[in-house]
Design brief:
Length: 191
């Protein structure tokens, strides 16, 4: 009875995720392993939170996801690369008469605009400026209301951002003439 030729399978150690390779029910260790030619390997790449698979490499071949099974035909290196998930920012511009909203990357201070992409976990800074006759009420970030101005937000999903302003109460000047005290009193009541 002959023995099957042996092949070396080198399993990489990716950053920002894990790479698991199994030969049947036997897991292969990171680094060099020896298997039989013809063995079917299961490859599983799992990104860390906030990351996604960039590519899986098997020898010279690249995949966007791991194949369900890989049959070993020669010495081969198996690796995985992960990249940060990028989230889309949507900025709802407030009515021009009410105020302005500025959104910046908190690290680089670069101003962001609608449809810009921000890496998962990045911080952004929101600032609002009310125009004459209005005051800042709050930011609406997704379904969250934030009353701090400026405010810093950590991006963990696609976000829609808006600044809400409210009109200042109308003020009136009231002139009161005080009667002669001997004639009575005057009361001013606000309603």
């Amino acid at each position: 009875k002959g023995t099957l030729p042996k092949c070396k399978v080198t399993v990489g150690t990716p950053t920002h995720g894990t790479l698991a390779v199994t030969n049947g029910s036997t897991p292969l260790a990171a680094g060099e392993n020896t298997v039989n030619e013809g063995d079917a390997l299961t490859i599983t790449a799992t990104p860390a939170q906030g990351y996604q698979i960039r590519k899986i490499t098997i020898g010279e071949d690249e995949y966007t996801q791991a194949p369900s099974l890989y049959t070993v035909e020669e010495n081969v290196a198996i690796g995985a690369e992960f990249e940060p998930i990028k989230h889309t920012i949507t900025i709802n511009t407030p009515p021009a008469a009410e105020g302005t909203l500025t959104v910046k990357n908190a690290t680089t201070s670069v101003e962001l605009h609608t449809n810009d992409k921000v890496e998962h976990g990045e911080k952004i800074t929101l600032s609002a400026t009310a125009l004459a006759g209005y005051s800042f009420k709050h930011f609406k970030v997704g379904t969250t209301t934030i009353t701090d101005n400026p405010a810093t937000v950590t991006v963990e999903e696609d976000l829609t951002i808006e600044a809400v302003f409210e009109p200042l109460p109308t003020q009136h000047t009231v002139t009161v003439t005080v009667p002669n005290a001997a004639e009575g009193t005057l009361s001013v009541v606000r309603k």
